[in-house]
Amino acid sequence: MKKYIALLFAFICVFPLAGCQKIISASELYSFPEPPGLITGSFYSQGQETEFEIGSEDYDPNDLSTIPVITWFYDLNLTPCDEPEAVAGAEGYTFNVKGEEAFTYEDRGSEAYIIIDGSYYKVSNPSAPPID
């Protein structure tokens, strides 16, 4: 009987550590400054780069154009992971806030990743960033 209790105790202690990564909110990894100001970036697809700008450098309390991007980012659910293998056909979005790189969103079709400071996070609810 003591063997079964010891075995059960071992499973209870080890099970939470075995392969289950906690899903975290993107807001735990990066917080947009207040006010966010100008969000710039680049969209990379099929060897082409398209730059984009959202908002303005001058603070305007009536300019709400950055809200969709901020909301989209904060709604992402992420799981820490190792750097995935490179694939052909991936699209990438690099976001800069107040002139500094904030994060990259890599869309691989069926999978997506957020990259922040060289760390990779798999997105469990991928969607295209609202940069239009």
How does this structure look, described?
This protein is an alpha+beta fold. It is built from 2 helices and 8 strands; from the N terminus they run αβββαβββββ. It has helices at residues 2-14, 67-74; strands at 24-25, 39-45, 48-54, 77-81, 91-97, 100-107, 112-116, 119-123. It has an 8-stranded antiparallel sheet, with no helix packed on it. It starts with a helix and ends in a 9-residue tail after the last strand. Mean pLDDT is 85; it is low at 4-19.
Radius of gyration: 19 Å
Summarize the main sheet: 8 strands, antiparallel
> Globular, elongated, flat, extended or rod-shaped: what is the shape?
globular
Approximately what portion of the residues adopt beta-strand conformation? 25-35%
Tally the helices: 2
Q: SSE order, as H and E? A: HEEEHEEEEE
For the biggest β-sheet, the strand order reads 1-4-8-7-6-5-2-3
- Write down the overall mean pLDDT: 85
Helix content: 10-25%
Going by helix content, strand content and strand pairing, the class is alpha+beta
Number of strands: 8
Distance between the termini: 65 Å
- Could you list the spans in which at least 5 consecutive residues all have pLDDT below 50? 4-19
